[in-house]
Amino acid sequence: MPLVKEERQSMMEPILTVTPVQEFPLANEGGNRIWIKRDDLLPFSFGGNKVRIAWSFLEDCLARNCDAMIMYGDRRSNLCRVLSSMCAAAHIETIMIETSEHEESSRMPFNEKMIRLYGTRILQCRKDRIADTVDRAFEMLREEGKRPYYIYGNRFGTGNEGTAVDAYVKACPEILQWESDTGNRLAYLFTACGTGSTLAGLTAGMLEARSKVSVIGISISSRSSERAESCLNKAARAWYEKEGRKVPQKLEEALHVETKYNCGGYGIVDQRVTDLIDRVFLETSISLDPTYTGKALQGMLDYLKEHEIRDQNILFLHTGGLPLYYDYLAEKALPGDTKEAE
Amino acid sequence: MPLVKEERQSMMEPILTVTPVQEFPLANEGGNRIWIKRDDLLPFSFGGNKVRIAWSFLEDCLARNCDAMIMYGDRRSNLCRVLSSMCAAAHIETIMIETSEHEESSRMPFNEKMIRLYGTRILQCRKDRIADTVDRAFEMLREEGKRPYYIYGNRFGTGNEGTAVDAYVKACPEILQWESDTGNRLAYLFTACGTGSTLAGLTAGMLEARSKVSVIGISISSRSSERAESCLNKAARAWYEKEGRKVPQKLEEALHVETKYNCGGYGIVDQRVTDLIDRVFLETSISLDPTYTGKALQGMLDYLKEHEIRDQNILFLHTGGLPLYYDYLAEKALPGDTKEAE
Predict the structure, then answer these.
(1) What is the pLDDT of residues A46-84, one digit of tens each?
(2) Of B23, B27, B29, which is closest to A10 when you measure between CB atoms?
(3) Chain A residues lying within 8 Å of B327, measured CB to CB
């Protein structure tokens, strides 16, 4: 007898709840009120923006009548963990293509551990062999009688940019509703920016709603401004095309990614960021991680100061990534043993 | 300039949100509908029943005009972690008395690690020296000019049972509201039972509301039935006394703890429980832990079968304990490396 009933769609329906916005008691010199939207609390697989995005991919996969999913990412990937979890619940086969350069560290990151526990098969390859490995994953699944879906579109990883973007276009009404319910008009909305899907979605969603909020992404990788902006633009345009909407003239001007707060590149972090993570955890119980949210929050604080932004309502989107916080904690050495023997 | 503003009470106000109830797609032979109340999602310090209970202690501490807290628990204690977190946010000094017998394992449990990160001072002692160590903690804090509060009352750990119980009396209206909103009338409500505060609170709360639901605790420790029932009774009566209410005649009959599903004692677990944890995680993304929730859920399934309970609505309270899931995951060996080299 199976543990779990067949109709498990019901388990996934309630995951896209409206997440809370809390006042974030961060001191800042400009007298701004800083708010935090807790997308880290989305009630599925430890939360995070990837829950909305994975849901968007899964809906697209089912709409295309596919029954197997191919994904691509780093071994620390939050998206691949949430997708693996959602697909396991939906009984959809998964293959992950993974190109991480493995460090000497013997600890397996929690996301990779969970991806494996969910039964996702991992194909490792060099970065110059991704397209071939996508082909191979398609073949493997087709030989098993499956109809595979690759989240990034074709073998070169293009053609499906709009699907991930859509997830955060759809999240914008929640934020607008909060503004309207509380009377707090936002001047800025900040988020971490990796691939840019979340940022593109927020920007397009706010433009569509004729909101005046400035949406700013803090890049957490080593992408140049030009490359980051070009990816963002492409992603946003893909969404307009997918939806059959006219691209607004203001789009290019509205897409805004800051690359100067990246600490030197993906996964690189400095002491200011780790100090911020520890202090935010101590003072608020909110966990940030060094790769995405901690770096983005420090970048936001620096941006507000450098641009002398004062007396505004500022929203920081907490994009989750809880397993990365536990990685951070597992590797953290404690400052001095405070044990006292009786 | 401090990171965090002084008025940080605002960070703690929104933590007692109404938690979702989801249908839990657990197959069971009796055709029961099983629901899960996600108190693991309470939005503070990784959630769990201890968020409600810690909040109750903190309110009591402040009401008594105290400004330092003494707590007692195991190094894996969820309560001590949440209390440390809440007190750090409220700038309240904390001392934890800890009597764990330390195993040879070199890994520090995540809860202990966080308790230390929050700045809680830890006093270790033998189990026969707790009262003396409570005295010592009081002295230390008084010498620092503080007014200490001990969560368990006097030096023998009695006199404050009602405060923790109150947290789950106050949670009962949420469950009743869910029944009324959905039209699902519950026959049984199950929860893990350690000290019994949660179970006593649910039982008293349901009695006060004249609900017909049977509240059943699955004991996760080696306490005998007699000892578990006596503790429960004491805790529930303390709540009635504290509230100045008459103890109902039905109380003793309504308090119900099952001790046969404890796998042999606190922290002891068998393969059925770990298999259940892995399968629930795989199929639903919900994380259970071996010490409390996993054992309690297996106990509930066994109870339903053994008592031939059929065609009923059953609610399982997920009491959280996420750091214990990560401990479990950190120590878990993966079944075979599925990596394939390209």
Answers:
(1) 999 999 999 999 999 999 999 999 999 999 999 999 999
(2) B23
(3) none
